[in-house]
Amino acid sequence: TLKIITALLIISIITSLTLYFKNILDNKKYEKAKLYNTAIQALTTEQFNYSVDSQQGNILTTTTINTKDPVTLEQINGSYYYIHKIKERYTEHTETYECGTEEKPQTCTRTYFSWDYRGSEEKEATTIILHEREYPSNLFSIPLGLYERKLECQDIKNTKCKRGYEYEEDRGWFTLEGDIRYYYKVVNPTIYGTIFIKSTNNTIQPVFTNKINIVPTNIEEILKQMNSTTESTVTAFIIIIISIIFTIIFFTKDPNS
After folding, report:
1. Is 248 helix (H, G, I), strand (E, B) or coil?
2. pLDDT at position 226, please?
């Protein structure tokens, strides 16, 4: 009986704490969602620029963002908003491992090769065009994981290119220690996305952080995500179920096992 009471007490405490913190997170998300829900939805260039000029507060807009001064490198074709050139070197490594038996333990050595990072070069445009107006690019944050892509060989001028990697030496399908290769990641000069901004002093500013986030989706999807509490509910449910299972296992465990 004491075990049952203790188990129920532990489950009750964990459940209460989980729901308490869930409510805190839900309240914070609600306050943030309220800002999105009450923001002006500027669906046209004219509406967006008028809202900025008249300082109407928070604005949501989905649009195509262009680069005024795209950048390039002499090794590649085309111009882009952002370029990241990564250098790798085929390097020999040595590692030790246990290769003996329990009776005769022994340490052996083996060699392996890998392409290791050896530096990079980055270039980024300085000005973007949003709703026919120019803004400094450092005012915005572009999630590279969502917009960035790796260049293929047709976009690289060097003919010593295989599967998107530019090699300094053409050895066919063989690779030697010390060989160097490069690959390129870029963000296109024109991207589509949604931004959430605050209009003040006849210009735009971030609402939450020091940069304006560009999100590759539309207003409808953003509002749907902001108004959803499914994630926190599922997380709380999983925590409660796991705590119940572990508590039952612990208190039903045979002390002699």
Report:
1. helix
2. 77
d(CA 49, CA 253): 68
- Phi, psi angle pair for 216, to nearest 5°: -80, 60
Neighbours of 142 (CB within 10 A): 23
Q: Which residue in 62, 78, 80 sits closest to 70, CA to CA?
A: 80
Q: How many CA atoms lie within 13 A of 206 on its CB side?
A: 13
d(CA 79, CA 189): 7
Rounded CA gap, 149 and 229, in Å? 32
pTM score over 0.85? no
Measured CA distances, 36 to 5, 43, 99, 207, 253 (Å) = 46, 15, 61, 10, 50
Could you tell me which residues come within 8 angstroms of residue 111 by beta carbon, excluding any fewer than 6 positions away? Answer: 92, 93, 94
Phi and psi angles of residue 211, each rounded to the nearest 5 degrees, phi first: -135, 155
Distance separating alpha carbons of residues 224 and 231, to the nearest angstrom: 12
Q: What is the pLDDT of residues 105-145, one digit of tens each?
A: 888 999 998 999 999 999 999 999 999 999 999 999 999 99
Q: Average of pLDDT values for 135-156?
A: 94
Percent of the chain at pLDDT exceeding 90: 51
Mean of per-residue pLDDT scores for the chain:
86
Using alpha carbons only, what angle is made at residue 225 by residues 189 and 63, rounded to the nearest 5 degrees?
Answer: 25
Non-local CB neighbours of 242 within 8 Å, separated by 6+ positions:
none
Fill in the amino acid letter for 101.
T
Type of residue at 186: V
Contact criterion met (CB below 8 Å) for 65 and 191: yes
